[in-house]
Amino acid sequence: MDSFWKFPTMDADTLRLLKKNIDEGFRAFTRAYGDSIESLFNPLQSFLIWAERLLLATPWPVVIAAVAVIAWIASRSMKIVAGCVVTLLVIGWFDMWDDTMKTVSMIFVCTVLAIVIGIPIGIGMARSNRLQRIVNPVLDVMQTMPSFVYLIPVVMLLGIGRVPGVIAVVIYAVPPMIRLTNLGIRMVDKDVLEAADAFGSSSWQKLRNVQLPLALPTIMAGVNQTIMMALSMVVIASMIGVQGLGQPVLKAIANQYFTLGVFNGLAIVGIAIIFDRISQAYGSRLQKHREIVHG
Amino acid sequence: MAEANQPGIEIRNLWKVFGPNAKAMVPLLEQGTSKAELNGRHGHVLGLRNVNVTMPAGAIQVIMGLSGSGKSTLIRHINRLVDPTAGEILVGDEDVVQMGAHELREFRRHKTAMVFQKFALLPHRNVLENVVYGLEIQGVARRRQVEAATRWIDRVGLAGFEKHYPNQLSGGMQQRVGLARALANDAPILLMDEAFSALDPLIRTDMQTVLLDIQKEIRKTIVFITHDLDEALRLGDRITILRDGEVVQQGTSQDIVLRPADDYVEAFVKEVSRGRVVHVEAVMAPFNPEDRSLATVPRQTTLDAAANVLMQHDCEHLTVTDEAGTPVGQISLRQLLRAIVTPADDIG
After folding, report:
1. What ipTM does the predicted assembly reach?
2. Interface contact flag, B168 A210, Cβ < 8 Å
3. Cα–Cα dist B139/A24, whole Å
4. SS3 call for B122
5. Which of A29, A143, A149, A229 is deepest in the core (most CB within 10 A)?
6. What tens digit of pLDDT does each residue of B299-313 get?
7. Going edge to edge, which strands form the sheet with B317-321?
8. Other Cβ atoms within 10 Å of B49 Cβ, number
9. Beta strands B238-243; B246-251: pairing state
10. Smallest Cα–Cα separation from B161: which of B190, B196, B121, B188?
């Protein structure tokens, strides 16, 4: 009756041996291939450094003007433009400009990467039910697995720095991109697709002329979600050496600097709101043709 | 656009069964398994049962039936949006069933164009961009796309609306865009799947007139699906009536109205205004030279029109003539009226 009250477990030696073997196996793998895998990510590293230098080397008035122009193109709303400019001015006044630029550049790279990876996978999932069945559980794992857990192998392989940080962020932030691309394409009206078929569209023409344009608002919602999730990873990423607004927060936690934590936290919230409003306004502007109704 | 160039469509022994093992069901059906049996015992749904239709080139072929009769399935076989279980679909001398993917795409691009019940316009494109769609797919130069599109937008009466989005247009206007999109394709075959069914009655009549007007110029082979007998009689050079996936009757509007094949067709025909469909030759009496009337009508005249002529001349009866003007029969007011108000079988 013992095993009724106490869960019967694998015996301790086997379990220890199992863990040890996997650890050693992975360590051996890291020693053997770590360098070559690291060099595989060199282009990503240069992209990151380029983006960061670009933002840091550009004089701040130019950056703010550029943000204002982008906000205007995307939203056509003076209110949103003014909000973005004021937020950036306040962040700069509180001496967080450089950290903010580092964070923005990293978020930018992560978002580009998530889009480049996510859209093709989402398209593939929309076209094949079998791929959808395979990818969906993987996405579930990526979203629910605590990020610290997959930080371990990434750091073992690539060490500490920007690249492993970006990889961790992208793993966490890419699922909504994939899911919403898939959803958007699957939701396209069957009648319109049939019409495209009836006119002899190839599957590429169908994708380009019908499915992607009609899924675009949903895909933009995915971009928006991806950016928000990437921002929420800033502090965790800073634990493995990603610079930016996360590091002062980390320092604040370690030393109980309340105000330092709040300021940098609010700066993260500030740029999150900027990103969110701009991308949402763009997304809804894409749907303009749906709003104007006859009558 | 000479009439001789238009291909006719010939559908031979076409079967469609929906289900996982459709092919194996055809022999069972050939032995006389019923639709209900097929569904209950074998878990398959019967779409079309041994359909044979010959659609003449350059004419409007109407396929009529209630919902569930298989008419939409049938029209989708012609451009193979639905694959048949068995049978042949000959367009000109090509068998659509045998086409590979590439061939089929070329066939859809150049030989057919389709108009849909729910319009199926691209909501993110304005009217002009919707109408050029087929030509864009064909890879026609942009300048020629716009040229053709502008001409057809004009022809269907939407000039000035080129920059509007579908959402900004009424149902009737949206279907004009659908029609222009199909016509701009310049394909010899036009497939119209309940194209006017979603429109208000007045607008529907309007669109029928537009279609008939255009058909006088373009003489395409048009396949028109409808559940409305009045529409069928007005548009159809030939009519095929479907019920539960089977052809019940085929013929001209006269054939259908005067000689309904069974109760199902008769039930439809009862509600129809016969004076607009039936020609005098179908109900006239033999010509009697001693009782010749000076007022004459060609034998293809409808009863309504003949009654009008009779009234204008204020006489007892009319002489019916053939194309050469030779008298072939005569018809009195009494006969006219009886034909208009009673079924043909009861006429003496």
Report:
1. 0.83
2. no
3. 59
4. coil
5. A229
6. 888 888 888 888 888
7. B285-286, B327-332, B317-321, B296-298
8. 22
9. antiparallel
10. B121
Q: B169 vs A292: CB contact, 8 Å cut-off?
A: no
**A36-50 exposure pattern, b = at least 16 Cβ within 10 A, e = fewer:** eebeebeebbebbee
Q: Which of these, B212, B228, B314, B327, lies nearest to B280 by C-alpha position? A: B327
| pTM (2 d.p.) | 0.83
Among candidate residues B320, B250, B241, B245, the one with its CA nearest the CA of residue B285: B320
List, in sequence order, every residue forming a beta bridge with A252; answer none if it has no partner: none
- Please report which confidence band the pLDDT of residue A147 belongs to, taking 50, 70 and 90 as the band edges: confident
Q: Which pLDDT belongs to residue A291?
A: 66
Give B190 to chain A, closest Cα distance, Å: 11
- Find where tokens 């394909």 sit: B187
| Cβ contact, residue pair B124, A289, below 8 Å | yes
Using DSSP, state whether A81 is helix, strand or coil.
Answer: helix
Name the residue with tokens 């003489």: B219
Residues B64-76 have pLDDT tens digits of: 988 888 899 999 9
Q: Which residues in chain A have Cβ-Cβ distances shorter than 8 Å to B107?
A: 200
b/e per residue, B289-321, with b = 16+ CB within 10 A?
Answer: eeeebeebbbbebbbebbbeebeeeeeebbbbb
Contact flag A198-B81 (C-beta cutoff 8 Å): yes
User: What does the pLDDT read at residue B343?
Assistant: 56
Give the type of residue at A108.
F
**Cα within 13 Å of Cα(B239), Cβ side:** 28
Gap from B115 CA to chain A (nearest CA, Å): 8
